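To: structure desk
From: M.T.
Subject: fold request, one chain
Message: Could you run this one when you get a chance? Sequence is below, nothing fancy, just the single chain.
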Amino acid sequence: MEGKSMNWIKKYAIVMMLTLIVFTSCNENKFLEEDSLSIYTAQNSLETSSDYQAAVNYLYNRVMYLIFQMNPDSRFAFWYGTDLAFCSCDVNKLNTYESTMIPTFSVVSNMWRYTYVIVNQANLILTRIESSDLEETEKDSYRAEALFFRAFGYRILANLFGGVPLILEEITTPRRDFVRTTREEVYTQCKEDLTEAIPLLANIDKVEDGKISKQVAQHLLSEIYISLGDYDNAINAASAVIDYPSMALMTTRFGSKAGEKGSPFSDLFKVDNQNRSSGNTESLWVSQYDYLNVASSNDSRCWVHLPFYQNITITVDGVTTTAFKGVTAEKGGRGVAWMQPTAHVCDEIWEQGDLRNASYLIVRDVQIDNDASPAYGKWFVADGYSVQANRVRNWFPFFMKVASGYVPEDYYQTDSNGDYLLTGLGEHLVTSSANSSFRDLYLFRLAETYLLRAEAYIDKGNNTAAAADINVVRARSQAPLADASDVNMDYLLDERLRELTFEELRMCTLCRMGKLVERTQKYNSTYVANNGSLAESSGTSIEDYHNLWPIPYSEIERNTDATLEQNPGYEN
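Reply: Done. Structure tokens follow.
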């Protein structure tokens, strides 16, 4: 018996071993698959709540990169070549559409590429979160933010390029078969994403500064409804933001510089005043910046927007000096003047009494501060010295709302004793590295919500209601109120220039409305060159087809398994 029992056990063991071999050999790939426990892989990188939070954080980061940190030529294309501003770097031919708005230009491909990075990151989260083990409330929160960002990315793509490939899930294998949908289909997807996200998002008074809220999504949804021609729903979406109890325009002085000369409008752009935690009930979505945080990069538009004033040379009574001792904090820091406002923005859109045109907001004249000059203390423009300066890059009116007038003390110049160096007029000299705004930045603000609702009213033919919304914004800055008979789409676009100068993505606004060509031809065809003559700018080279950007040739070329159609006008 013992021998037979041992034989049975041996036979059973052999059968079990063979069974295991057979079953494991049936799934050889699974058997050989590594289970990485100590490193992140594509399979295990999104599992925990902190993983998903990091993935959402990256979406915020990519929006900052797209608008504020992408290489200068690319991100400044949101403002260059419009009715707002021209590029003064003539040597690079950045003023002409014929040399820049072409399918092979890096600005075009960068805008496409980095906006799709936002879309693809959102798709990664949306694809994987449904099968995750997170609590449903966590799933809803991350899903809502991802849906918002996907809509935000597609909104930019549709505004600039028209119909684009609509990708709604994570791409896990190489694809070369993308085809374009219609612009309306892209906007419709934005609408669906936002209407799904809004019930899942918290109200703005329940979220941290900088975080997406229900009201931020409703603001964007209002614009999307306008793009779809659904004006009643656009009005409803904007009204939901405007009527929310915690939202209101700032109409009294507030914040860090409330004791200085200014207005409620100028206070909006002073350092530390952008977030709701500072008492600002107007802010909707604010991009966060933390000084000395290596993960936080700042907006350098003041660097590109401010005149290159530090090297202006003047001759007075036979004495030649610079007009200014150097770059000062009070004048916004160091500028290189690549982005110069059009005459339309500087001079033509303003009416008497509008505080947005006050001297502390649009600097049109300054005192000469080099005490070595016989002109020390005199006014650079009013006293006639500006004629000696180059009109391009050295001197032009500039907007302090871009720069804020604040520079951290780390950038102050000091003498050998460590004391701050000042001009004779009391301004702090700063280093050439002081070329940023050093503050948080608006992405959406309630004033724009009013102007979106006004746009929808104009489209509906209700100019009385449109004027009422525009006047809410104008009244805050003591501008003369508009009559219903004054209001049309061009008046609205001028009001957006007055209120949202260098805040809104102007290129997106004009392309969305089909007004880029018309407005650029009208307001950005010439500028005053260094010799005082008129030189040609963007408006002389823009053509009707430029209301849409070209599809990047690199995307068309690599899409070998399907045809990615080019926009009309760019085929050759």
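Reply (cont.): The chain has 20 helices and ten strands. Let me know if you need anything else for the meeting.
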